[in-house]
C-alpha cells in the first residue's frame, strides 16, 4: 500500500521536481497550488504527509498548517515546510503551527526523501 503525500507550492517547477522525486520513491502524490487549494484537496482522503511552501498567494504555508491542524482527520499528519526562508522566526512560527521539519530550497531530492522517510512510518 503506497503512502500519499500532498505537495503544496505556488511554483509549478517545484511541484514537479518534488512530485518526480516522491513518485520515484514509490509515493502517491497530490498537488495544491496554494494553501486554499490544498485545503480543498484534504477532503477526508488519507494523506500520510504534507510538504508545503511557506510563501504562497491566497493562503501562506504557516496559515495553511494552522488550518490543517484544526481538521480532526489531519491533526496528526506530519508536515514538512519546503522553503527558501531560513529565518529562525519563520521556523518557530511554522513549528508552533504544527510543522515537523524544515527543508530549505534549493534542496537535493535525497535530502527531502530522507526527511519524508523519517516522518512516514513504514
Automatic annotation (TrEMBL):
The modification 4-aspartylphosphate is found at residue 53. It comes from the Bacteria. This is Response regulator. GO terms for biological process: phosphorelay signal transduction system. SUPFAM superfamilies: CheY-like. Gene3D superfamilies: 3.40.50.2300. Pfam families: Response_reg (PF00072). Keywords: Phosphoprotein. It comes from Virgisporangium ochraceum. InterPro entries: Bact_response_regulator, CheY-like_superfamily, Sig_transdc_resp-reg_receiver. Residues 4-120 form the Response regulatory domain.
